[in-house]
């Protein structure tokens, strides 16, 4: 149906965790109404199945590398999946390579917001609050501003929240979700390392 666009499908997927195909089908059945589509997914058990999918263990995978043309900048990235079969899949390998390139180019500090140590998060919140110390704003407004600044900070330091360098309209998180839906397995970047030769530059 023309009324069902990709954004609606991804919005529903983000709210339910159900697969792309299930979300599109539910939206079509619900005439484009997201709330009704959620009920359709519940009745079909798709949300329960998605929860089971999220509980799967990603214990296979590969380590991908990127080395800049001058040989003075490199990155290693570990990308996990559920089976060795998918680990050998060319599309999975390409994703891992793209993520290694992302690490080299954008220098993230953490994999995702969930992996940022709690003490670091609290320190950033204190910094953002200190910036507003002389501003006459209600505390609840300040809290919302701090949350907004924190989310913006995540887009700088967390790999999954960064814009994909090959498509700035898409975040790394959205890219991974897209590949997860297509490949059919849980895909998780687990760790990475970026190296730059001291005094080597990146030209």
Task: Describe what you observe in this structure.
With 203 residues, this protein is of the alpha+beta class. The chain has helices spanning 6-16, 20-29, 34-44, 46-54, 84-87, 90-106, 118-131, 139-157, 172-183, and strands spanning 60-67, 73-81, 163-164, 167-171, 188-196. The chain has 3 domains: 6-54, Helicase, Ruva Protein, domain 3, CATH 1.10.8; 60-111 and 158-196, Tetrahydropterin Synthase, Chain A, CATH 3.30.479; 117-157, GTP Cyclohydrolase I, Chain A, domain 1, CATH 1.10.286. Helix content is 53%, strand content 16%. Strand 1 and strand 2 (73-81) form a beta hairpin. The radius of gyration is 20 Å and the shape is flat. It starts with 5 loop residues before the first helix and ends in a 7-residue tail after the last strand. The model has no long low-confidence stretch (mean pLDDT 86).
Key words describing this protein structure:
3 domains, Helicase, Ruva Protein, domain 3, two-stranded antiparallel ribbon, 9 helices, Tetrahydropterin Synthase, Chain A, 3-stranded antiparallel sheet, alpha+beta, 203 residues
Strand content: 15-25%
Overall CATH architecture of the largest domain: 2-Layer Sandwich
- The assembly state of the depicted protein chains is single chain
Supply the number of structural domains: 3
Question: Could you give the count of β-strands?
Answer: 5
What fold name goes in the CATH topology slot of the largest domain?
Answer: Tetrahydropterin Synthase, Chain A
How does the helix and strand content classify structurally?
alpha+beta
């Amino acid at each position: 149906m023309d009324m069902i666009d990709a954004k609606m499908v991804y919005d529903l997927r983000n709210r339910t965790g159900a697969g792309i195909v299930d979300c599109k089908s539910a939206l079509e059945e619900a005439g484009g109404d997201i709330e009704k589509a959620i009920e359709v997914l519940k009745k079909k058990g798709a949300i329960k199945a998605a929860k089971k999918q999220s509980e799967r263990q990603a214990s296979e995978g590969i380590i991908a590398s990127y080395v800049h043309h001058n040989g003075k900048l490199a990155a290693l990235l570990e990308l996990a999946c559920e089976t060795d079969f998918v680990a050998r899949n060319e599309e999975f390998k390409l994703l891992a390579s793209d993520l290694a390139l992302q690490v080299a180019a954008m220098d993230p500090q953490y994999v995702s917001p969930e992996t940022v140590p709690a003490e670091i998060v609290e320190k950033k919140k204190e910094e953002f609050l200190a910036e507003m110390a002389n501003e006459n704003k209600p505390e609840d407004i300040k809290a919302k501003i701090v949350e907004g600044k924190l989310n913006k900070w995540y887009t700088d330091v967390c790999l999954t929240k960064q814009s994909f360098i090959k498509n700035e309209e898409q975040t790394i998180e959205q890219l991974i979700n897209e590949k997860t839906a297509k490949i059919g397995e849980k895909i998780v970047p687990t760790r990475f390392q970026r190296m730059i030769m001291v005094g080597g530059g990146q030209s």
